[in-house]
Design a protein that fits this description.
With about 210 residues, the protein is an alpha/beta fold. About 25% of the residues lie in helices and about 25% in strands. The chain has an eight-stranded parallel barrel. Helix 5 links the parallel strand 7 and strand 8 (about 170-175). The chain is globular.
Length: about 210
């Protein structure tokens, strides 16, 4: 399973997390987030870089994409399918659309993005567009039958290894982790992430 670590901004912490062998690293470019990255860190990882935006303009997304050299743009607000396609065309990046879930009705929104984005991310619905540390009911995803693959997000913590190892869905590519692996907003605990990755990989090998 792929591992995405989101909410990074400190150069040395980025370097340490990268050494753990993660697949994706997210940088939050939304000013209202406590993990907002206000400037390009002195070190950027070689893994896939994801820029996270919330209801921001095409011009702002393009500007940050060029500064960070993002390979993916994650849209975490109320962006339409047409806007997602415009981002893909303007930036040349792959697009991840976050769908915030609290009920079965929210899952139905995913279908409108087929053909317009490359990947979905299912997160917990909250007032701050992610990073709440809270989980939604993963059983809701049993009804997901669309073609787009997805990452599972929303309050995943170090203690969830066993539960994640029993979560099976043919479209799930991996897990997005953030706030529950932090020492403080934007600074990750590398030992917790290392243990988490080992736990997931051990299951996959068995």
């Amino acid at each position: 399973m792929m591992i995405k670590v989101c909410g990074m901004r400190d150069a040395e912490n980025i370097r340490k997390v990268e050494r753990l062998g993660i697949d994706m690293m997210g940088f939050i470019c939304w000013e209202r987030s406590p993990r907002y990255v206000s400037e390009v860190p002195a070190y950027l990882p070689q893994c896939e870089r994801i820029g996270v935006f919330v209801n921001q303009s095409l011009d702002e997304i393009q500007k940050q994409m060029e500064a960070f050299e993002f390979s993916y743009i994650q849209l975490h607000g109320s962006e339409s399918a047409e806007f997602c396609q415009a981002v893909r065309e303007k930036t040349g990046c792959k697009v991840i659309k976050a769908i915030c879930i609290s009920s079965e009705a929210d899952l139905a929104l995913a279908g409108q993005y087929e053909g317009f984005v490359d990947l979905l991310l299912f997160d917990t619905k909250c007032t701050n567009f992610g990073g709440s540390g809270k989980q939604f009911n993963w059983d809701i995803l049993r009804d997901y039958r669309n073609a787009l693959p997805f990452l599972l997000s929303g309050g995943i913590g170090p203690e969830d290894i066993e539960r994640l190892n029993t979560f099976h869905h043919p479209k799930c590519l991996g897990f997005d982790i953030n706030s529950r692996f932090e020492i403080e907003p934007g600074i990750k605990d590398t030992e917790k992430i290392k243990t988490f990755i080992k736990g997931i990989q051990t299951y996959e090998q068995n």
